[in-house]
Amino acid sequence: MAVSRLFRSFSGLHKANARIQAYPFGYKHSRALSSDSFNNGDDTVLPVLIVGAGPVGLVLSILLTKLGVKCSVVEKSKTFSNHPQAHFINNRSMEVFRKLDGLAEEIQRSQPPVDLWRKFIYCTSLYGSILGSVDHMQPQDFEQVISPVSVAHFSQYKLIRLLLKQLENLSFKFCTSDGLEGLNHGTFQEKQLLMGHECVSIKASDDFVSVTASFLKDGKLMERNIRCNILVGTDGAGSTVRKLAGVDMRGERDLQKLVSVHFLSKVLGKYLLNERPGMLFFIFNTEAIGVLVAHDLEQGEFVLQIPFYPPQQNLEDFSPQICEQIIFKLVGRELGDINVIDIKPWVMHAEVAEKFLSCDNRIILAGDAAHRFPPAGGFGMNTGIQDSHNLAWKIALVVKGIAPSSILNSYETERRPIAVFNTELSIENFKAAMAVPAALGLDPTVANSVHRVINEGVGSILPSELQRAILDGIFTIGRAQLSESLLNENNPLGSSRLANLRRIFEEGKSLQLQFPAEDLGFRYLEGALIPDSDGGMSAPEGPTGRRRDYVPSVVPGARLPHMNVRILSDTSSEVVAP
């Protein structure tokens, strides 16, 4: 049984390797609650309740179920969104997915061919001049030497569908708030995913956590109380669980505001697929500026990110009709089959929760509930998936009565420094992304400074229409730097700017996609498994925002290096070890 093997491996490692300590950080025998409070035999108390059915919460529910831990999930949304959202899955997350009944292989089969998304392209329009391009895949990325699986480009909503399929195979029941007749309202049972249930209050005691979830039933607001031993908040950047637990965020807020436009156009997809395939398109011209994410060129599915400057701008400025016109300006021509699906504003933050655990380790945060990054580098979802992987086996040890609840301290000890590091790395990568428009004469920091002056300085006393006119005028002047008469090799200023742009691309100083050293080479300097001395446990090199190669290491706290293992008794068989 996978659970028993896991537990035998854990105890065996303590005996076999004198350099390693089990039950390290914060371990106290007097805190061994797993034998009574965390596993008291009360069938009315669910061992684990997960709030939030995004990729992080769903992965955690799958891992816990496979480890024999009873759990259920509640999600405030009534349906799952088809907005693509996150889309890049890094090496380590794909390694985690290899353990989920062929999930990694299914993703690789279903994703677009790598040649359609390996590049970032910088241009004046999708039909216009190319300013430069960066290929983010290197030969070693396909050799499966440092990892048995490669990175993937796969939209979040498609990943959620695969995760739900796995939960269905594990006998989970999916229910909406309108379909609760068959459920026992007195006892909240395991293996349930309840949609349309919003966590509205939390009360922790010495014996359990009481969660109140509200839901609409026949148009009437109702509530149900759920008692659990452990509550895990995986409910996103605006986490209700985090707020109810009184946990603050630390870091930089409001780095940038954007509007995300999800649209379909097979005409555009076919053109880009044949003429200039890529994952991201950074488009700069005198009429509009935006970043286009090509989620699937074959299906013609895209998301356009547009800078947003409220309150001078509001969502009414981004109606479907207006967004179509913006898209046409960035494409360079009209599209007859364009279909705008969804428009939503969002704010970029770089913050980490001050703590991941509260209420004597009964309330735990993971994923975006614990950390929110700029999307540069795709660390958000990936860090969250790896949070779940780190957390699941520790919860299993506690619930099964094998380890005291204090072992959960190692989750925060290990994962929070990784979140802080990835936050810093995402900021550096975001700054690298801003270097490109700055080289073209469009320094985003200037636009943000002007916007702050209008909102907070002398501009705030001006009428709103005048504020908007000033902002629009400044943006028009800025975009004039992108005119063909200026941005060409025959113009001394334009030539200098284009040369600077080429230098940024050649030196790897633009936005990067892959970070093998950080993806696979991160280390836990203390936590569940640590050396019995401090020798060699130096802090990692700070983030640079540039791609660095992964160097395999066998020091405690590092990922075990990948290698192919051949079974000696049968040389025709080969087992790949992650």
UniProtKB/TrEMBL annotation:
Signal peptide: none annotated. InterPro entries: FAD-bd, FAD/NAD-bd_sf, RIFMO-like. Keywords: FAD, Flavoprotein. It comes from the Eukaryota. Residues 47-186, 192-419 form the FAD-binding domain. One of its GO terms (molecular function) is oxidoreductase activity, acting on paired donors, with incorporation or reduction of molecular oxygen, NAD(P)H as one donor, and incorporation of one atom of oxygen. GO terms for cellular component: mitochondrion. GO terms for biological process: ubiquinone biosynthetic process. Pfam families: FAD_binding_3. PANTHER family: FAD_NAD(P)-BINDING OXIDOREDUCTASE FAMILY PROTEIN (PTHR43004:SF6), TRK SYSTEM POTASSIUM UPTAKE PROTEIN (PTHR43004). This is FAD-binding domain-containing protein. The lineage of its organism: Eukaryota, Viridiplantae, Streptophyta, Embryophyta, Tracheophyta.
